[in-house]
Design goal:
Helices cover about 30% and strands about 20% of the residues. The chain starts with 7 loop residues before the first strand and ends in a 5-residue tail after the last strand.
Length: about 400
């Protein structure tokens, strides 16, 4: 699609300091490949494990593919700060919007989103609150339960409590049936998760979880089908066709190795469900998205028990965008290809930024004063969404 204005500069932010660093690099490659070159000019920015922000080469990233353990950042790139990234005097120019594809802690937990809010740069995905509660599996499940959404039985273990009273903590987990799953409360990509088949395995599983977080969540092992939906939107989110994960891996669950290294799981897209089941999982996914104050995008993971009961497992507010990731695959099966999907996500980011920008930050004046304007960098509000006037959208 041609446009009579310059392309928007899109910062693709990836890497980060979490255990999902390599997966973030793979996601960034797919995002760069999917961006419409007629509408957007990509500016890849990597965050190293040490916290340095470095400009990267799009061409180099697109050339390098393969094993996530070999994914690396070019540490020779120009170092920038966030404020430099928004400075029109810099060589890479002002960033119009950022696609933060930084998975894990300090990426999708609200920390990065807060920094972008302070800098005044539009960004794709959930805001500070949605990102934070979506990342913390303990808080997330409590909010879902409060909203009346079905979740599996779980308990929370804090590292401090376990170190001080290990037997007391272990005894309090006695109500959970075997098998159990022990997870770091704030992490994704199945990093740090242990399937516990006997209670004697609990201490070792907690030790693993506590190497990644100071809080662990211990869940009942649900027997059922793993069904996932992708969600897209702001005030009026929609859900994709659901897909099913069928695991065939020695780990016995959808582990990091099964996902990314060993081809140990099949993705059945769309899932073999009745029309009624499809509607129900889509309803649960949208309700989860709303209950957790999300926006832009998310993937909602559910279980379908043999008796027909649905459970919401968790939400991922910055789901993977790799070649094998469910989020883009489900939308492709629903008729939205990656290029259109990225364009919609950027539109949603700009719409939310425009909507929030007109909110008052000071008390209204009793006499005089001007009202904020809706116009923002060439974008306008149409049916509650921000659209480019010169694109005719």
């Amino acid at each position: 699609m041609q446009t009579n204005r310059s392309r928007l500069k899109v910062g693709v932010l990836f890497g980060g300091r979490s255990a999902e660093h390599e997966i973030s690099i793979l996601s960034a490659r797919n995002v760069l490949a999917a961006l419409d070159p007629q509408l957007f000019e990509p500016v890849p920015i990597a965050i190293t494990r040490e916290g340095r922000w470095l400009l990267q080469s799009t061409e180099r990233l697109l050339r390098e593919k393969g094993d996530p353990r070999l994914a690396q950042i070019d540490t020779g790139g120009q170092e920038i700060t966030l404020l430099e990234g928004a400075d029109s005097q810099r060589s890479h120019g002002r960033l119009d919007v950022i696609v933060p594809i930084v998975h894990g802690s300090m990426g999708e937990d609200g920390a990065l989103q807060g920094l972008l809010e302070m800098a005044g740069i539009p960004y794709v995905g959930a805001g500070v609150l949605g990102s934070a509660v979506g990342m913390d599996k303990d808080v997330m499940k409590r909010l879902l339960r409060e909203a009346g959404l079905p979740v599996a039985d779980f308990s929370v273990v804090r590292q401090y409590d376990y170190a001080k009273h290990p037997m007391l903590v272990l005894n309090k987990l006695g109500h959970l049936p075997l098998p159990m799953f022990v997870k770091p409360a704030n992490l994704g990509s199945s990093v740090g998760i242990t399937r516990v088949a006997s209670r004697s395995q609990l201490p070792a599983a907690l030790d693993v979880a506590f190497t990644y977080d100071t809080k662990a969540i211990v869940e009942e092992g649900v027997v059922g089908r793993e069904i996932e939906c992708s969600v897209l939107g702001n005030d009026e989110p929609v859900a994709s066709l659901p897909g099913e994960i069928v695991v065939n891996h020695p780990d016995g669950f959808y582990s990091y190795d099964a996902k990314y290294l060993d081809d140990g799981a099949a993705l059945n897209i769309p899932a073999a469900l009745s029309a009624e089941q499809v509607r129900e999982v889509q309803r649960l996914s949208i309700a989860t998205f709303r209950a957790l104050e999300c926006s832009g995008l998310a993937r909602v993971d559910c279980f379908l028990r043999p008796n027909g009961e649905w459970l919401v497992n968790e939400i991922n507010t910055l789901p993977g965008f790799t070649a094998i990731s469910m989020y883009p695959k489900l939308w492709a099966a629903s008729g939205v290809q990656p290029r259109e999907l990225l364009t919609r996500l950027i539109d949603l980011a700009l719409a939310r930024h425009t909507k929030h920008k007109v909110l008052r930050t000071v008390p209204s004046l009793r006499h005089g004063g001007s009202e904020p304007r809706m116009a923002d960098r060439g974008w306008r509000i149409v049916d509650g969404e921000s659209r480019m006037a010169d694109r005719g959208w």
